[in-house]
Amino acid sequence: MQIWRPLVARVRALFRRDAIAAEIHEEMAFHVRMRADDLERRGLTRDDAIRQAKRRFGNLAVLEDRGYDIRGGGMVETIVQDLRYGVRLLARQRGFAAVAVATLAIGIAAATALFSVIQAVLLRPLPYPHPEQLVEVTILERRSDGRQAAGSPSIADTRLWRSRGGALTQAAVDRGEREVIVESPEPERIRIKEVSEGYLELFGVAPVLGRAFAVDDTIAEAPGVALLGHAYWRSRFGSDPDVVGRSIRVGGAPATIVGVLPRGFQSDVPMWRPYRPGGAFEARRFTGTSVYGRLRSGLTAVDAASELAAGLPAGNSTELPGVRVDLLYEELVSGTRPTLVTLVSAVGAILLIGCVNVAGLLLARGAIRMPELAVRRSIGAGRGRLIRQLLTENLVLGLAGGLAGVLLAWLSLDALVALVPLTIPSHAPAAIDLLVLGFAVAMAIVVALAAGVVPAIRLSRASVAGALAGAGRRHGSALSRRGGQTLVAIEIALAVVLLVGAGLMIRSFNRLVSVDLGFDPSQVVVMQVEPVDPSPAIAGPYYPALVDAIRARTGLTVGAANQLPIGGSRRLSGVRVGDNMIGLTQRSILPGFIEAMGIPVLEGRTPTEADRTAGRRLLVISRAAAAQLFPDGPAIGRSLQLMRGETFEVIGVVAPINTDGGAARAGARPEIYTMDPKASERLTIFVRAPKLTAALSTALHDAARSIGPRVVVDRIATGDAYLFDALRRPQNRTRLLSLLGGIGLLLTLVGVFSITAYAVARRTQEIGVRMAFGARPSDVVRTMLGDAVVPVVLGLTAGLIASSYATSVVQSFLFETSRYDAAALAAAAALLGTTAILAAWIPARRAARVDPVQALRAE
C-alpha cells in the first residue's frame, strides 16, 4: 500500500496540472474575446478585431488548435461565454457562492411561497361563469330611533328581485352552515348548508346526478330532500350512481337524496338542504342569512343598488329601505387584506435585506478581484464591458439562488399554509405552478441585478495603475460611508422593523393568553355528545340522565350547558328593567355547571338538582350583570323578566368569565345563567377533573351510551384544547411573524459579518503595520468595532423611527398592546444591536491576529 501512494499522488498531480492548464487557457481565450468585443465596437470587423487582440497577447493560435474559442462574436455567443465564465468563477469560489446562494434562496423562497398563497386567495378568479357579475346584496334601514342598520334581505325580497328580472338575473339565499347528525347508515355529525331554490343556477352549476332544489322543496310541509357534495358522495357512498332516490335520516328526519353536486364546487360542504323559513319568516329581514345575485350584463353595482331599492316595502322602518350591492369577490377577499399586507411587508423586508446582503458579499469579493478587473481594463475592456460581465455573474448567482429558493419554497409550502391565518379556497389550493415559477424566475433576476448593480458600477471604476501597483497587497480605508456603512445601516434598519413587528405580536399574544378567564380550563374536561334522534321526547331527559350517570360512575363534579365557554357562539338575550331592555349573554345550564367550571360564587347559591326537578325558574348572574341590572342594591331575591316574557328569580352572583377566551377586547361580558335548556337543545358536558385520562375517557363514553338512545360523541378534550383552538389563528400569526423576524435577523448578521470582513480584508496590511509599531490586539479590535458601531447605531435609529410607521399594518392584530410598546422596541434594539456588534467582533478579532512580520514583508 505504501508503494502505490506516491504513484497515485503523481497521477492526481498530473491531472490537476492538466486541469489548471485548461483553466488558464480558457481564461486567456476569454480575455481575447473581451478585447475583440471592445475593438469591434470601435468599428473594426470581427476578423480585424481578433487579429489585433492576438497581436496584443502574442501568437495564440495554439489556443485555437486546442479547441478554445477566441473568436466569439454576436450578442448571444458573448452572453453564453459570460455565463460560462460566471459559472466557472462561482465554482472556484465555493464558499462565497454558497453563502450568496443561500441568502438569495431564503428570500426568494419566502417570496415564492407567499406568492403562491396570494395567488390562491386573491389572484385566481372565482370558479364560476362570469364571476364579475356575482354580488352580495344587503338591506339598509333607517330605524325609528334614527339609527341605520345593515342586514340581510328576506327571502320574499329575493324572490321579488328574481321575478322582476331587472338588475338581478338570478338571486338566492344562503343560510350558512351548521352541524347535524346524518344516518347513512351509521350516524355521524357533518356540516350541511341550507340554500334557497336558484342557488346552483346563480353560480352556473348543475348537478352531475339528479336535480337541484325547486321552490316546492322550500315549503315547510314538503318532504325532506338533500344534495350530496361530490367528495362526500365518493367517500360515504362509494360513487354509487344509483344514490339518487335513496332515503337517509338527517337531523332525525327522513330525507331523499335528489342529486349529487359536481367535483370542486364548494367541496368542503358534505351535504345541502333547502332553506325553509316558513310562514311569516319569509318576509323577515335581518335574519343573518346571505343573499347573492347575478348582475345584468353591463350594469354596475351602484346602479343595481338604486334599481333594487325601488318598490321594496319599508318593513318596520320609518323610511324606505336602501340597498347596498357589493361584488362577491371583494367581499370574499376583504378580510384577508390586513394579513396579506403584513406578510407582504415582512417578506419584502427580507428580500431587501437579502439584496443588501448579497451586495455586501459582492463588495467583499471585489476587494480581492480589484487586480483582476484592473488587468482587464489594461487590455482594453471598457467599463461597460466589465459591468456587463459582473452583472452576468450576478445573474448566474441569482438563477442559482432562484432554483434553490423554488426547491425550498416547495418543501416549506405546506408548513406555510398551516401557519398562514387565512382560509385557502378549496377550489384553488396554494401550489407551485407555472405562474409561481415564472414569478420566482423574475424575482431571482430582479434581486440578482438589484444586488449587483451598485457593486458592479463601483468595481468597474478600478484604477489600473493603483490596482496593479498594489497587487498582492490588502490595504485601504475603513468602511466607506457611501458603501459598506450604508449597506450595514440599511440592513439593520430593515431588521429592526421586522423584529419590532414580531416583538409586538409576541407581547400581544402573551397578554391574550394571560387574560383572566374566570376559570381554570386545565381543570375541566369537556364532552360534546348528542342523541341521534333530536326530538324533545328523547333529547329533553337525556342530558340530565347523562349528568347523573357520569357523576355516579366517576364521583366527579359534573354539569352541562348549551354553549362552550371558550370559542363558542354566544346567545344574546335581553332583560327588561323598567321601560328599558338591556342586552346580555344568556347561558342555559344544568345544575353542577358552575361548580364543574370552578367559577367562584360571590353571593347566594347555585341551582341544585332539587330545583330542577321542582321546575323552579331560577337564574344566576355575573357580577358585571348585577352591577348593570341592580345598581341600587343586592341582587339576591330580585326578579328579572327576559325577552321572551318569562320571569326568573335571582339566587346567586358569580365572578365574571371571559366567554371569548381572551379574544374580546372589552373584557368579560355581563352574563346570566338560566336553568331552562330547551328540550331539543344540544348540551355540552363539563367534568371537573385535573386531567383527561384513558380511564376517564372510557367512563364518559360508556356513560353516554348506557342510558338509552343512540348517540354520537363528537369530542372529549380538556378545556386547554378548546382554548388552543380558539387562539389558533393569533398564535399562527405570531409564529409566522416571529419566524420571518428570525430570518431577517439571521440574514442581517450574515451581512454585517461579510461587510465587516470586507473592511478587514482591505486593511489587513495596515493593521499588521500598526501592530508592528506597537499597537496591541485590543487596540485593533477597538478600532474595527468603532468603525462598525457607527452604521449599527444609525441603522437602529432609522429602524426604530421607521417601525413607528411600518407597524401600523399589525395594529389591528394587537390585543391590549400599543404599536409604540417600549418593551418591544427596546428588546428589538438590544437584540439586534448586540448580535450585530458580535458579528462585527469576529472578523475584528481575526484581524488582531495578523502577523506583523508578514505584513512588513508584504509592504
Features:
859 residues, alpha+beta, six-stranded mixed beta barrel, six-stranded mixed β-barrel, 26 helices, 22 strands, 52% helix, globular, disordered N terminus
- Strand segment tally: 22
Alpha-carbon distance between the two ends: 46 Å
Q: Tell me the major beta sheet.
A: 6 strands, mixed, barrel
Over the alpha carbons, how many angstroms does the gyration radius reach? 37 Å
Unreliable runs, pLDDT <50, ≥5 residues? 1-21, 59-71, 467-481, 661-667
Structural class: alpha+beta
> How much of the polypeptide forms β-strand, as a percent range?
15-25%
Mean pLDDT: 77
Number of helices: 26
Question: How would you describe the oligomerization state of the chains in this entry?
Answer: single chain
- Strand order, sheet with most strands: 3-4-9-6-8-7
Q: Tell the overall outline.
A: globular
Name the helicity range: 40-55%
